[in-house]
Automatic annotation (TrEMBL):
Residues 119-231 form the MurNAc-LAA domain. Keywords: Hydrolase. It holds the Pfam family Amidase_3. This is N-acetylmuramoyl-L-alanine amidase. GO terms for cellular component: outer membrane-bounded periplasmic space. It comes from Natronincola peptidivorans. InterPro entries: MurNAc-LAA_cat (IPR002508), N-acetylmuramoyl_amidase_3 (IPR050695), Spore_CwlD (IPR014234). GO terms for molecular function: N-acetylmuramoyl-L-alanine amidase activity. The keyword Hydrolase applies. GO terms for biological process: peptidoglycan catabolic process.
Length: 238
């Protein structure tokens, strides 16, 4: 009986040690990125971050019901934190699960109003760059990987898109073969006169990436990659 009691005590002690290690690791991971930002070059820039969708517009929805809008917002909040710690002024088009539309009108009218108002925020911000955060989704499930896009009518966004894409590959998946591409069919990024990048942080339609994108640690990694891309861009284009 005494031997059994001793074994139970050792088992309990081992469990407590494992729990303590887990708590420490979680706290360390939470503050790791925050502490590193203090060592990065100062960013005396104005940056607009747009967490795509929100409110009545969920964006892409996975087969498991995971909504794009919530992940976009989480990544945007982490990115804002990193940028602000480096001295940047950050303007968010939304900071919670809302859309920028009035109460009346159809869903389509509300979505159009929302996009117009987001674009007005960018145009009135006098920002140095604009980043809009989204997730991808296809009918097929095999596609995966983060990718950046810049407006075809404003190639000033190309160098920024390239730097963020390079950071995605380095931080998230070194086997990611995607490259920064021009787009001309996205209303929000057309007709702007500042460097603009549409960031697709991954595919909700891919089962493995869907799981990753729901994890807070991975969302921080995505935000960190965007942050590093921005830092690298301004290092070459002060």
């Amino acid at each position: 009986m005494k031997l059994i009691i001793i074994k139970k005590k050792w088992i309990l002690m081992a469990l407590l040690i494992l729990i303590a290690i887990g708590v420490f690791a979680s706290c360390f991971h939470h503050y790791r990125y925050r502490s590193i930002t203090t060592l990065m070059p100062s960013l005396t820039k104005v940056i607009v971050i747009d967490p795509g969708h929100g409110g009545i517009d969920p964006g892409a929805v996975s087969k498991n019901g995971v909504m794009e809008k919530n992940i976009n917002l989480a990544i945007a909040h982490h990115l804002r934190e990193y940028l602000q710690q480096s001295g940047a002024v950050v303007i968010m088009t939304r900071t919670e699960d809302v859309g920028l539309y009035s109460d009346g009108g159809t869903i389509r009218q509300k979505k159009n109003e929302d996009l117009r108002k987001r674009k007005e925020i960018v145009k009135n911000s006098k920002a140095d760059i604009f980043i809009t955060i989204h997730l991808n989704s296809f009918q097929q499930t095999q596609y995966y990987g983060a990718q950046t896009f810049y407006p075809k009518d404003n190639p000033a966004g190309k160098p920024l898109a390239i730097k963020i894409q390079e950071a995605f590959i380095d931080a998230l998946d070194k086997n990611n073969k995607r490259v920064a591409l021009a787009k001309n069919d996205v209303y929000l990024i057309k007709g702007l006169d500042i460097p603009t990048v549409l960031v697709e942080c991954g595919f909700l339609s891919n089962p493995q990436e869907e799981k990753l994108l729901q994890k807070s640690d991975y969302q921080k990694k995505v935000a960190w990659a965007i942050y590093i891309g921005i830092q690298n861009y301004f290092s070459y284009s002060p």
